[in-house]
Amino acid sequence: MPVNLVPPKQADLLPIAGIKLGTANAGIKSTDRADLVLIQLAENTTTSAVYTQNTFCAAPVTVAKRHQNETSPCYLLINSGNANAGTGEAGLQAAQDCCQAVAELSNSSSQSVLPFSTGVIGQQLPIDKIKQALPDAIQSLTTDNWFAAAHAIMTTDIVAKAVSKQVQIDGKTITVTGMAKGSGMIRPNMATMLSYIATDAAVEQAVLDKMLANASEQSFNRITIDGDTSTNDACVLMATAKANNAIISRIDSDSGQALYQVIAEISQQLAHAVVRDGEGATKFIEIQVQQGVDTEECRQVAYTIAHSPLVKTAMFASDPNWGRILAAVGRSEIAGFDLSKVAIYLGDVCIVEGGEPAANYTEQKGQQVMDQDEITIRVELGRGGANDTVWTCDFSYDYVKINAEYRT
Amino acid sequence: MPVNLVPPKQADLLPIAGIKLGTANAGIKSTDRADLVLIQLAENTTTSAVYTQNTFCAAPVTVAKRHQNETSPCYLLINSGNANAGTGEAGLQAAQDCCQAVAELSNSSSQSVLPFSTGVIGQQLPIDKIKQALPDAIQSLTTDNWFAAAHAIMTTDIVAKAVSKQVQIDGKTITVTGMAKGSGMIRPNMATMLSYIATDAAVEQAVLDKMLANASEQSFNRITIDGDTSTNDACVLMATAKANNAIISRIDSDSGQALYQVIAEISQQLAHAVVRDGEGATKFIEIQVQQGVDTEECRQVAYTIAHSPLVKTAMFASDPNWGRILAAVGRSEIAGFDLSKVAIYLGDVCIVEGGEPAANYTEQKGQQVMDQDEITIRVELGRGGANDTVWTCDFSYDYVKINAEYRT
Questions:
Q1: By residue range, what is the domain housing residue B50?
Q2: Does B311 have pLDDT greater than 50?
Q3: What is the pTM of this model?
Q4: Beta carbons of A319 and B406 less than 8 Å apart
């Protein structure tokens, strides 16, 4: 079950003026749930997006990038249940056909539609089912549909992930609402599987791009479930300019910082939600690596711990088998690593100091930390002033079960 | 259960003149099985060893390296059940005390004893138990004890791993016998957890070193269970010179090649045995990556596939979910990767060609391959003439069970 993840309530998700969402059941998934989302962006909306860095990126990623370069997006079309990845030329054509279908029903150009898919890799997209369901999605377009849309983009997610926050900027109330999906094949590199965040603020394109890059770097790009990077990752940030604030032209201005703060918080909350709902997760684990020469080496150590199946199964068992953490730190391939300066903490409990087992560590102290469902592992490298943090979950029977039975 | 791994028979393991092995039950492990092995090397035995590259190497590794630099080894002392890793100064002292105890009982120097430990990390070595059991181990020293020793070094291994081969060199019958242990925390980097190979051939030190380096590079350094590199890995190759062959002074001579061939075969057979007995393994998987610019990039792609929990759980489920293989290839971070030249095969079945799903692939063909318990994944990169191969196993419920319950 998800770790301390409270499902969003319909009433908590605030509409964003200028953003309408419609959902439909295209029958792509075997379950009888909506699996198609259409997002309509008001004129003058500024849109920024980051995509997977997997070389085998999915067809919709290729098409979305191309369309975004050609014109301002008016629609985002998202389907769950089928990733349209590893589908070759036919898959590219299918992604384009989906955009064309939206364009025809809405009197827009196909280039103004960005396609997104998530689900099973390697099966052709059932384009006819999507075309048939599109009128329903258009019919249901409303600003109140974040709750339904957050559910419709789910695949192996148990809990929907969406959140809203507000901030006062220049005397105007600015609203930000975001949603995300993802619980496996999660080690985003630029963005999580799928995440959509919108605000009614007016923001210049370059500033929006910077806000998205920074926020995703400190959230979606710092989480891992299983180290596998999806072919379909995408994160989209939209600013509709409907709040009538003075346009934000610098990220380091007061208004830029105020808005960025909210976007960063929402990104991190959604990223944490993806980990909390990680496939089979029973623990939420924060790995802080401090005192590094640079953030890269901190991140490298943190990910080595976060990807260790032995650390993750020990976490699942609530077993303070800290030797596995130590072994992971030791194999992280940091040049000129001096063990005698390393300290490791499990929660507040010091387990290694000066490279040696901590004198006053007891198994009982370690067990008290491990019995929690939120655990912090902190490593001090004693090399410099850089820090980084990564979030992950444990590795349980259910992870194997979910992924062994995914297509059956 | 181990994948097609036939347990060695006592009669199949040939003694090596000049090598005696003794075992004893020191009570380190909770089970009532021998957990201590003493190997006695005849005078003039040449010994070569490679060790873990984990920075947090265990105390016995530090001591064994130091002793090997000081003098020729006369004894190897191996205990299972406790790794003496993460044990600080006390652990180093314990490893030295063990060597000293052997030295006192055998009228040798403590520097001539190499200590090895395998088992739980982070607990102090029960040195008194080992000292008490040492006389039993010495008492039982005999050339016929490879079978008992191969069992005594096991930890989570289900099946003992040992093999003998013979080759005619210069009219003499040369015998090589080797044993290994290991089934988790396996991604050796220089050597598997513990492996001991002995021959009665006469071999110069530099040639023996080269044979061990080459053979371990193509065997123990090409396997992975879970990507975790042990703190205790060691592989020792001993040549007793009792066969009265003309001393082998070049690896590229006829006699050098003949002996190397046997050592390489035994190393690979033992390495494969470690994978076949991998924790929770139900499939033995060979990953061949071909047509790379160099072997490094081939290995990088192969390990990315081999470490993917999603690929490994699909293998466990016998699910031809080849999209996961494709996604792993895509995230292996090879510079200038051209998808349109990539082909991927599952056994003999082409699943991707020219970067596209193979036209004549059917799920039925994929399923036939996946139903086997030995599966070959072959990737052609279309970039050059280099190849490399890595072996791994699948990821099952039992892997989680074994590692969640390891210390309980």
A1: 10-276
A2: yes
A3: 0.81
A4: yes
